[in-house]
Design a protein that fits this description.
The complex is a heterodimer of chains A (213) and B (152).
Chain A (H helix, E strand, L loop, with lengths): L11 E8 L2 E7 L9 E8 L6 E9 L3 E3 L11 E9 L2 E2 L3 E2 L5 H4 L6 E6 L4 E6 L15 H4 L4 E8 L5 E6 L3 E4 L7 E10 L4 E2 L6 E4 L5
Antiparallel strand pairs in A: 1-2, 2-5, 3-4, 3-6, 6-7, 6-8, 9-10, 10-13, 11-12, 11-14, 14-15, 14-16
Chain B lengths: L3 E6 L2 E6 L1 H16 L23 H16 L8 H27 L6 H15 L3 H10 L1 H8 L1
Classes of the chains: A mainly beta (213), B mainly alpha (152).
InterPro entries (chain B): 4_helix_cytokine-like_core (IPR009079), IL-10/19/20/24/26 (IPR020443), IL-24 (IPR020444)
GO molecular function (chain B): cytokine activity
Main location (chain B): secreted
Chain lengths: 213, 152
């Protein structure tokens, strides 16, 4: 392809950032280069070893490239690589480390819905979905990807500041023997034991138990 | 042990914890995989992924893969980095104790190796012997997460 003279400094910190298996390649511009640097990206499936160019990320000036579609099979592992161009010069290809979507992704907190009676709170938790190409595509819950997925749930009595922590495998929790007419705040986290993956805690959902009749 | 789970390998049910092995591997994964420059070959996944192995054959394949790692891989994975070496020997020790459990289960349940798993094991050994021993051992160690992902 008539490669140019490659003396441009390399792109830096080439790495995947992955959330719920939305896998985006990120990098930093070569040191000492201002605007005008363009990039191209390629990737490969480990064990197949044929580099494949990503057409949508050819001659781009952004420092990221979404490779979610190309790395969606989480039973495979991948490498990606970036090359920079400026004023007729180019850099070397710079590779990521080996990327394993199953172990290297981050997981969002679960969604929470809460309802109450006069002395109990019912909590329903929903694990996030795996990234998908389009809304029409079938949804895959991360629960299917990580069968050992559990939820850590925190319930705080706003009045007494007393907190309970529960660790559950199914997605519903009823907290009984609560005080009527009292505000409670719930937040939850996803915990996968192996591979070890923890989401952050969700935003707090507060609800009051009904007043005594 | 923390994180003990019941694993089903065909007829075999074995209570094991992968947590320590996973933690040990995660700590050295980037170091080990950076020593493997060969992108076009996978010892465990070439030409077919482990995920293609049928359920009844899981018992036999898992048992033989543990033998493979204990007998052929760990002993050839010395590095100049004492931290990495310590993690490798810790993983190797975990494999030794898990192998004992698998061996008992393998014998009790008379896990028979089907034609496909026998072929798969042959392929893995051929992939391994196609490289010099140090490269093959380091590549196999770098693929430990492929084995763990498949087992889990």
């Amino acid at each position: 392809s008539g490669e140019l003279y490659c003396s441009l400094p390399n792109p830096r910190n080439v790495h995947f950032e992955s959330i719920n298996m939305k896998n985006v390649l990120h990098w930093s511009a070569p040191a000492g280069t201002g605007n005008g640097v363009l990039y191209k990206v390629k990737y490969l499936v480990y064990g197949v070893g044929k580099w494949i160019r990503k057409p949508e990320c050819r001659n781009i000036n952004t420092t990221w490239c979404d490779l979610s579609s190309e790395t969606s099979d989480y039973e495979e592992q991948y490498y990606a690589s970036v090359k920079a161009f400026l004023n007729g010069m180019c850099s070397d290809w710079v590779e990521t480390t080996r990327f394993n979507p199953l172990t290297d992704t981050k997981i969002d907190p679960p969604m929470i819905s809460v309802s109450s009676t006069d002395n109990s709170i019912s909590i329903i938790l929903t694990a996030p979905e795996k990234w998908k190409r389009s809304p029409e595509e079938e949804s895959i819950s991360l629960l299917q990807v990580y069968p050992g997925l559990q939820y850590n749930v925190s319930v705080l009595n706003k009045k007494t500041k007393k907190r309970w922590l529960f660790s559950i495998s199914n997605n519903t929790l009823v907290v009984p023997w609560l005080e009527p007419g009292t505000a409670y705040c719930v937040s939850a986290q996803i915990h996968v034991t192996t591979p070890l993956l923890d989401s952050g805690f969700s935003k707090e959902h507060c609800i009051a138990t009904l007043k005594d009749k | 042990t923390a994180g003990n789970k019941i694993f089903h390998f065909g007829a075999c049910r074995v209570s094991m914890s992968m947590t320590e092995i996973r933690a040990g591997f995660t700590a050295i994964k980037t170091n080990i995989q950076s020593r493997d420059p060969i992108r076009s070959l996978s010892i465990l996944s070439h030409p077919h992924s482990l995920h293609k192995v049928k359920s009844p054959d899981r018992c036999c394949i898992t048992h033989h893969l543990f033998d493979f790692y204990v007998d052929k891989v760990f002993k050839h994975c010395k590095t100049e980095d004492s931290f990495v070496n310590r993690k490798i020997s810790s993983i190797a020790n975990s494999f030794l104790s898990l192998r004992r459990k698998l061996r008992q289960c393998h014998e009790q349940n008379n896990c028979v190796c089907g034609e496909e798993s026998t072929e798969k094991l042959k392929q893995i050994l051929a992939n391994y012997e196609g490289l010099n021993v140090t490269s093959a051992a380091m590549k196999s160690l770098g693929e430990l997460d492929i084995l763990l992902d498949w087992m889990e």
